[in-house]
Structures are given as structure tokens and as C-alpha cells.
Design brief:
This protein has 300 residues and is an alpha+beta fold. It is built from three helices and 14 strands. It has two domains: 155 residues, Glucose Permease (Domain IIA), CATH 2.70.70; 91 residues. Strands 3, 6, 7, 8, 9, 10, 11, 12, 13 and 14 form a ten-stranded antiparallel sheet that branches. The chain has a two-stranded antiparallel ribbon with strand order 1-2. About 10% of the residues have low confidence.
């Protein structure tokens, strides 16, 4: 599997988890879970589910996500180190006890029952020692993976300043924003969730297009999001979902404005994910949309 295909798979897994955490889109007669965002009036920011919606600079978004990730990794490494230290302490005590048990002689006059009991104690001692060794091996492997993630995150922090970010993306479909990027409170459970993309309210079965030039890495069903496509644009990926009747094959080059399918109903999901980290980091697509009167471009 190529690196680009692997990235698409990780993105799909993340999308599936996110989609299961949220409700499916409401019926046509039901109100939207999130109030559609509109242009601010009287100098005030539009209101989202958890207060004013603030559109951060994309690089600032990425830097903040990487900082949070680095902090989480550092805390996890410290936790695993504590567990490893405790495992070493327990293992040392058990090794000493097992050594004494295994070296203890069995009396020549011992009965068959006593000899069987001694054999069982020795087998149990070996089992515990082996289990402790396996547990320590798992903790050591986990530490190695965390250290690799720590190094990768440090590299990504440096890459943020130079990576090519999308600008002036075409909207995948004409419509208003029904569900915004960022945190929200689930309407029923009241749990705070994080939405990695946006929902566009569109005409029923509206045509959907590619937002920029790229290569199709995935086209097919996405659990909880009907069908969708993942498009590779170089330093970032876009995900367009809640679609039907896809017309683009995997591996095909695609150009900005090319038709990729149509909306399965009256919502289109759109996500932008920058190629940083294991599965990429999502950023708010809204500030990246092409402004009226401007020519499409990309800049560093």
C-alpha cells in the first residue's frame, strides 16, 4: 500500500468514528442540530453551538493541534514510564521468589501429592515470570511508538511554517453552512464533540464538484456519511461525502470543478485535512473558500 493510500485509509477510519459520534442528518421536516452560520452583523462573530465562531488562521489551527498532541504524548510517555518502573519492581520481586521456589529441593520422602503440589507451584512461578516479561515487552514497545510519535510531532511543528496550505478552494456544492467546524454540544447527550469538517445545506441531489486539482485516493462508502471521495492535493487531502452516484474512479487525476457525483439528499459534508501526523490534521475549510472576484491560486 502506498503512503498516499495509507493516509486515505487512516482518514476514513477517523471519519467513521466521527460520524458514529454524531446523529445522521435530520429529516427534511426536522430542524438542523446546528444553527446555520451567516455573515456577522454589527461587528459580532456568528454564534455556534458553544458560543461565537472564531475562524483562526489555518497555520495557527495546525500549531495549536500539534501543541495539544505533543502535550498528550509527553503525558502518556510519563505515565508509561511510571508503569514500566512499577513493572520492573514487581518483576524483580517475583524473580527472586521464583528463584527461591525453583531452587527449593523436594524431600525424598515426599508423597506423590506433595510432589505434584511442588510441580504446580513451580509451573505457576514460571507462568508469572513469563507474564511479567510479556507485560514489560508491551510497555517497552509502547514507549518506542510514543517516542517515534514525539519525534514526528516535533518535525511536524517545524513543517507547519513551510507546508503548502490550500487557498481559494471551490465550494464542492452551492449552499449555506448548516454545521460548522469545531466543537459542539450534542443535542441529546449534551456531550462535547469535535467536528472535523462542515455540512453544506444544498438543493436536493445537487451536483458536487472537486474543490481543487488532485488525485482520487478513495471513492466509495464511508460509514455514517453515505458515499464519498478522498482527493489528494499534495500537502493536503479533501473529503467530500454524503454523496450518491460517484463518477470518479480511484487513482484518476481530477481537476477543479470536475463533477464527482451529487448529494445523496440535501447535505454535503466537506473536510480539509493537512498531511501532518499519522492521519493528517483537519482545519476549518470556510476561510479557504475562494473569495468572490479572486482567481484561484495556491500559496505558501
Amino acid at each position: 500500500m502506498s503512503r498516499a493510500s495509507a493516509s486515505a485509509v487512516v482518514v476514513l477510519l477517523g471519519l467513521s468514528i466521527t460520524a458514529r459520534a454524531e446523529d445522521r442528518e435530520p429529516s427534511a421536516s426536522a430542524p438542523a442540530a446546528i444553527v446555520p452560520q451567516s455573515a456577522p452583523t454589527s461587528g459580532r462573530a456568528p454564534l455556534g453551538p458553544l458560543g461565537p465562531v472564531v475562524q483562526l488562521d489555518p497555520r495557527a489551527q495546525l500549531a495549536a493541534q500539534l501543541a495539544d498532541e505533543a502535550q498528550t504524548i509527553d503525558k502518556t510517555i510519563a505515565t508509561v514510564a511510571d508503569k514500566l518502573s512499577e513493572a520492573d519492581r514487581v518483576r524483580l520481586e517475583r524473580l527472586r521468589a521464583a528463584y527461591r521456589l525453583l531452587r527449593a529441593p523436594v524431600r525424598a520422602s515426599a508423597s506423590a501429592g506433595e510432589r505434584m503440589a511442588a510441580a504446580r507451584r513451580r509451573a505457576a512461578a514460571r507462568l508469572l515470570v513469563d507474564r511479567d516479561a510479556a507485560e514489560r515487552s508491551l510497555l517497552t514497545d509502547e514507549t518506542a511508538h510514543l517516542k517515534a510519535a514525539q519525534a514526528r510531532t516535533a518535525t511536524d511543528v517545524q513543517t507547519v511554517t513551510t507546508i503548502t496550505l490550500p487557498v481559494d478552494l471551490a465550494r464542492p456544492a452551492k449552499g449555506t453552512i448548516a454545521r460548522a467546524f469545531g466543537t459542539l454540544e450534542h443535542e441529546r447527550s449534551k456531550a462535547v464533540l469535535s467536528r472535523r469538517g462542515i455540512d453544506l445545506e444544498v438543493e436536493t441531489r445537487a451536483n458536487v464538484i472537486a474543490p481543487a486539482d488532485g488525485t482520487v485516493r478513495y471513492a466509495g462508502p464511508i460509514r455514517g456519511l453515505d458515499a464519498g471521495v478522498v482527493i489528494d492535493h499534495g500537502d493536503y487531502l479533501t473529503v467530500i461525502a454524503k454523496l450518491d452516484e460517484l463518477v470518479v474512479p480511484v487513482g484518476a487525476p481530477i481537476h477543479r470543478g470536475d463533477r464527482i457525483g451529487h448529494a445523496a439528499r440535501y447535505r454535503v459534508y466537506f473536510e480539509v485535512r493537512v498531511k501532518l501526523g499519522a492521519g493528517g490534521l483537519p482545519i476549518d475549510p470556510v476561510p479557504l473558500f475562494e473569495k468572490p472576484g479572486k482567481k484561484p491560486r495556491q500559496s505558501r
